Amino acid sequence: MTNTITIVAFSMGVLSLLVAVYLYRWVVRQDAGTERAQEVAAWIRDGAQSYLRRLYSALTLVAVALGVVIAIVFSFDIEHIGLETVAVNPTKGLMMAVAFLGGAICSAAAGYMGMTVAVAANVRSATAAREGIRPAFKVAFYAGAVMGLAMVGLAVIGMSLIYMLTQDPEIILGFSFGASALALLAKAGGGIYTKAADIAADLVGKIEIGIPEDDPRNPAVVADNVGDNVGDVAGMGADIFDSYVASTVATMLLGQSLFSGELQFRYILFPLLLCTLGIAASLIGIQFVRVGRNGKPGTALNLGTVVTCLIFGGFAAAAVFLFDYNPGVLWATLTGLGTGVLIGFTSDYFTSEGYKPVNETARVSSSGAAINIITGFSYGLISIVPSILGIVAATLLSYYLAEMAGISGIYGVSISAVGMLSVSGMIVSSDAYGPIVDNARGIAEMAGMEQEVIDTTDVLDAAGNTAKAITKGFAISAAALTVLALFAAYAEVVGARGMELVISLREPLVIAGVLLGAVTPPFFGALTMLSVTHNAFDMIEEVRRQFRENPGILAGTETPDYARCVGLAAQGALSSLVLPAFLAVVLPLLVGFLLGPEALGGFLGGSIFTGVIFALLMANAGGMWDNAKKFIETGQYGGPGSDAHKAAVVGDTVGDPFKDTAGPSLNTLITVMSLVSSLFAPVIAAVHLF
Amino acid sequence: MTNTITIVAFSMGVLSLLVAVYLYRWVVRQDAGTERAQEVAAWIRDGAQSYLRRLYSALTLVAVALGVVIAIVFSFDIEHIGLETVAVNPTKGLMMAVAFLGGAICSAAAGYMGMTVAVAANVRSATAAREGIRPAFKVAFYAGAVMGLAMVGLAVIGMSLIYMLTQDPEIILGFSFGASALALLAKAGGGIYTKAADIAADLVGKIEIGIPEDDPRNPAVVADNVGDNVGDVAGMGADIFDSYVASTVATMLLGQSLFSGELQFRYILFPLLLCTLGIAASLIGIQFVRVGRNGKPGTALNLGTVVTCLIFGGFAAAAVFLFDYNPGVLWATLTGLGTGVLIGFTSDYFTSEGYKPVNETARVSSSGAAINIITGFSYGLISIVPSILGIVAATLLSYYLAEMAGISGIYGVSISAVGMLSVSGMIVSSDAYGPIVDNARGIAEMAGMEQEVIDTTDVLDAAGNTAKAITKGFAISAAALTVLALFAAYAEVVGARGMELVISLREPLVIAGVLLGAVTPPFFGALTMLSVTHNAFDMIEEVRRQFRENPGILAGTETPDYARCVGLAAQGALSSLVLPAFLAVVLPLLVGFLLGPEALGGFLGGSIFTGVIFALLMANAGGMWDNAKKFIETGQYGGPGSDAHKAAVVGDTVGDPFKDTAGPSLNTLITVMSLVSSLFAPVIAAVHLF
After folding, report:
1. Chain A closest-CA separation from residue B279 CA (Å)
2. Element (H, E) at A74
3. Residues 6+ apart with CB under 8 A from A98
4. pLDDT over 70 at A170, yes or no
5. Which residues contact A546 (CB under 8 A, 6 or more apart)?
6. How far is CA A46 from CA A25, A49, A434, in A?
7. pLDDT digit string (tens) for B100-147?
8. Is there a contact between A605 and B488 if contact means CB atoms under 8 Å apart?
9. Are the Cβ atoms of B518 and A610 closer than 8 angstroms?
10. Chain B environment of A540 (Cβ under 8 Å)
């Protein structure tokens, strides 16, 4: 049976990829619109591609260097490190390094595909918007689906292939680490890029010069639109890709160490089976995402998510009974799935107009920016509570339901993470839709399309924001459960080396580890936010210089030097990555080798707790400020140009690096730190100072 | 010997109190100035006293009710609860309730004394400022010393008296809980009061009407100045009072459970001995705080702190060798003391002009409020790192130095907290100086004194801000170590009931507890901040109403109705306390009784981690924004009235509830939650659902 599962999983991955390619070809066949629109789109496309090429060529060096280190470290048979003779096993080292590079390449490829289709779809969706909401929505959503399906397809192909070849989940850990390391750099880099460009474009364009958003005379406008693609599309896709793989591999590792005999293979492969079913459910669910004649795009996206979840739940139930799995794993799967959806909709409450948090934040804006910030920040803190309650409920329920069914509770918690993430194909599809329609709106404006078209893209955009809020809540809670699973896997890996791991909060080394871990996510977030303002200042200087030295730009007679701003944003983002990346990889190793595996356990625990809290705070507060501003722009509390609006713009600008730079990187940060710890756990268990 | 220590401690407490009374009488004998100045001072005094009376009469009810609950619960001999026969021991219940009320009364009395002298000293310091810095500084500092000495005196009298009468540290736990519960309400209430009044006074006065700060025509100006007293004087004093008592009692409890035989009493009483020596050192150190002819008040305050620490270190060394204590406790004491001072000075780096964080935050302000907020918030996040490293170093050093000297490491950690706090008499004296000179400045302005006098009070005020920053860093790190000690004490108390407490991060119930605990401080902080804006809005309406209905006020021909604003602020603050207070007391009990003592251990751990992180973030970011604004007001980056200044004012207003409402309450919140858990630990160990 086990062979069957890997083969079916591999085939499903290939199918998912084929559908993605088919949809991609469909998207690029659509009308690319007027010459002017194509010109504008080409600027964005070229900027995005040149950034990704620069990013990937820089990362190639890092990845190869890390690959060599991994190859060397894992060529030693670590259980026998010490003063005894050291056994050498170069095959394992080589396999691990190849898996690592494979993970990085798959993650990069998913991001690249998603972005390629996004920069083709934006102009086509804008062009289709002339015909109405329906065709424009279709182009944007199918383009989003390319990203979603490519991502899950590549992930499942990679994992099942490695398992077929090596039968060793630890090698898949290398794959997962490669994927996450790349995701971290892609997300942090993209987040810094997009917000530095955004802030610079706004500050000089809107405030100093007084030209509207997306005005083609602004030299930073292309960089701003490129940023939406490299930050949101490539970023969020990489985020879910990395949780998706990490939760699966954590569960496979737990399956290996918690079960034995014939059961072992069955439970190692169960998470892969869930992924397969999730892809099947997503392929069906995507068909349900259609906007009727007067339909609303938001409803269509939500319907798709709900249908996919229901189908997946049915599939999972059928599989558990058909293949005679313990019913505990079904309860755990459904717990995870249900919690993910619930937490997603909770995020919606805190970030959508029509509910108290956004409305209150908008209302108090008439008393100035400070009150807007205090109120939004406070509601952001409160928004953490329901999500944490959801994570607590999912942890306890999946644990005890599994235990009551007679199966390991820890395995149940891990399965709940997989259950939550198995519908990622659909979730990412709705999410990637957001930046595409956001870009479509920008292109419609820059290419001077009719007001009617811009209105249509506005409607599409609003639905994208809701989808984005739901995905963020989903992504953060999924990451939390994934990291709890990785945490358990880490303890099991250390335990397998004959060392009983007691991560007790009564031990001073563990407390030291927790405190150090707890401070890492806020520190990391601060570094990325300071990079945003630092890079924004460089770009502000450049934009001012262009306006000053070339008065033809503002007169509209000359084209600004977009490429220079694009290059500046790319270079700034890349050089800002060095310290954060170093922290993510080196800090856990430092704690582990110096303070020992139990302190490292505490470190991981601490980083999860504050990582999740700051990620939720920043994502939700950012979304809240954004939508409070938009709510005022609909004419409330004085409407655009009022004092309330000016205050809300300040809140929105503060929220930008919160929600699009620091916040989203934190999930991946804690995943990378957990993965590097699990990967090096055997070495750390053998060699440490305390 | 044990009897000697309690008698010496008691006598030292009485001496401290007598010196406080002597200084108080000296302060009130000073010249109270012109009739106008006395009139202004009387408004502030009456407002502050009426608030405290309302607060205390409301709290009397709460305290008596809680006292009755405590009397009943502790009348049962809890070890035998269950299905067996229940032994009844009403004497213990009564003693516990009396100790609880005693703690609340001592804490209230220290706050009341501090505030009474502050509202007498402010006008006298302003009047003395006509003669120069020296006499004005002397009045303000000696008034601050009244607060500092009264506080440590009352604490030591209370603890030594209870120990003399009962020989049972658990009863002192009741005293500590009473002190902390009152401190939490005093601080949260005072913090909400002061910032609601401050924001309302600024928004209507400075921004809508355009009259200067502290203008007597502003109906909210008295409430604003009252707020400085009830928030800063009574608040910060209560904060350190509660850590001071809690760290001592935690160490006494650990001494009881970790030692036996003759050693037991010696180590139960060692923390009380340290307190005694700390008072002696403070009494001497206070003599060194003098401003020379051209001296700087900041230098004088710092010199006093350093001298007190050195003297205390010498005393502690002498006592350890004379009374033949294990040298490990000396290393732990000195580790704590050194770390406290170092962390205090680190806070100074992050919140003083002349260093990068404040200068950068000021510099970027010319690009608008949003960039100011992002930059200040980011540096605030970074400021957490050195303090946490200090706490980690203090924990590990005091643990391992104690272990190496052959004494319990946990006891060492607990002693390091006592060592840090033993010089509180001096620390609180410098701290209470701050709001007094701040008020002196306000009175000088409102009473129309000469510009020269206002300049002198400005110099005094700047030194107060630095002292305040140092105290805040000190208070937060001391609270962190205290709560770690309480955490250990909690585990020991549960352990003493025959239940081995394993607070392992591998247990789902513990993880659930940690997550719930971690989310409590940010939630609590958010509630207090939302109360600030809510109450500020009510007062804004009242101020607008007075200006509208009585045009004579703005013309300066009629006195505004100050009392109405004062009453509104008091009522708003009191009614905002209900939910936060409920959370602090009931949430730990709920977690304990429902999820069990191990989950409660996790809950306490989680609340410490995020409590300390958010407290540091809020205190430091708030101080940074405040001083960035002040730096611009010295003429940098365009000076007062420039765009940079407007942006910095937004940052300062956001920072106000951060640093004066939410941040300072979090220390006390985690102390109260740890105390209520330790107190009810035996009951929870006997009765819980999971």
Report:
1. 30
2. none
3. A67
4. yes
5. A219, A553, A560, A561, A564
6. 20, 5, 20
7. 999 999 988 888 888 899 999 999 999 999 998 999 999 999 999 999
8. no
9. yes
10. 367
Residues 592-621 of A with CB under 8 A from B: 601-602, 605-606, 609-610, 612-613, 617
- A378 contacts in B (CB within 8 Å)? 525-527, 529-530, 533
Cross-chain CB nearest to B533 (options A374, A382, A522): A374
State CA A70 to chain mean position distance.
25
Residues of chain B neighbouring A392 (CB-CB closer than 8 A):
512, 515-516
Residues from chain A that touch B484, judged by Cβ atoms under 8 A, are 511
Which 3 state secondary structure label does DSSP give A92?
helix
| Percent of all residues in chain B with a pLDDT value above 70, rounded to a whole number | 98
CA distance readout (Å), A366 to B206, B432, B483: 16, 36, 41
> A496-505, A556-565, A598-607, B502-511: which has the highest mean pLDDT?
A598-607
Measure the CA–CA gap between A141 and A432, rounded to whole angstroms: 8
Distance CA A210, CA A554 (A): 11
Who's near A444: CB < 8 A, 6+ residues apart?
A: A126, A129, A453, A454, A457
Q: What are phi and psi of B288, to 5 degrees?
A: -85, -10
Helix (H, G, I), strand (E, B) or coil at B267: helix
Q: How far is CA A467 from CA A437, B56, B556, in A?
A: 12, 50, 57
Nearest to B609 among A395, A523, A606 (CB): A606
Reported pTM: 0.94
- Per-residue confidence (pLDDT) for residue B83, from 0 to 100: 46
Contacting B residues, span 381-420, partner chain A, CB-CB under 8 Å: 381-382, 384-385, 388-389, 391-392, 395-396, 399-400, 409-410, 413
For A407, which DSSP code? S
Residue A535 CA to residue A197 CA, distance in Å, equals 8
Would the CA dihedral through A455, A461, A463, A469 be positive or negative? Answer: negative
Collapsed DSSP state (helix, strand, coil) of residue A99: helix
Average pLDDT on A546-557 reads 89
Assess A339–B contact: CB distance below 8 Å, yes or no. no
Q: Chain A contact for B689, CB < 8 A?
A: no
Structure tokens at B681: 């630990």
- Band (B29; pLDDT cuts 50, 70, 90): very high
Q: Any CB–CB contact under 8 A between B525 and chain A?
A: yes
SS3 A504: strand
pLDDT at B85 over 60: no
User: Which tokens belong to B165?
Assistant: 């009468």
The ipTM estimated for the assembled molecules is 0.93
Task: Report yes or no: B424 and B152 within 8 Å, Cβ to Cβ.
Answer: yes
Determine which helix (DSSP H) or strand (DSSP E) holds A424, and give its type and residue range: helix A424-446
Across-strand partners of A88?
A: A76
For chain A, the domains span 179-686
Q: What is the pLDDT of residue A494?
A: 83
Of A384, A413, A526, the CB nearest to B378: A526
pLDDT tens, A647-671?
A: 999 999 999 999 889 988 898 899 9
Q: Read off the amino acid at residue B510.
A: V
Q: Check CB contact under 8 Å for B613 and A413.
A: no
Could you tell me what percentage of chain A is helix, strand and coil, using 3-state DSSP and rounding each to the nearest 5? 85, 0, 15
Q: Does B590 touch chain A (CB under 8 A)?
A: no
Query: What are phi and psi for residue B528, nearest 5 degrees?
Result: -65, -40
* Predicted local confidence at residue A56, as pLDDT: 86
Q: Find, among B667, B688, B646, the residue nearest to B369 by Cα.
A: B646
At CA A159, angle to CA A158 and CA A160, rounded to 5? 95
CA distance A379 to A621: 7
How many CB atoms lie under 10 A from the CB of residue A77? 14
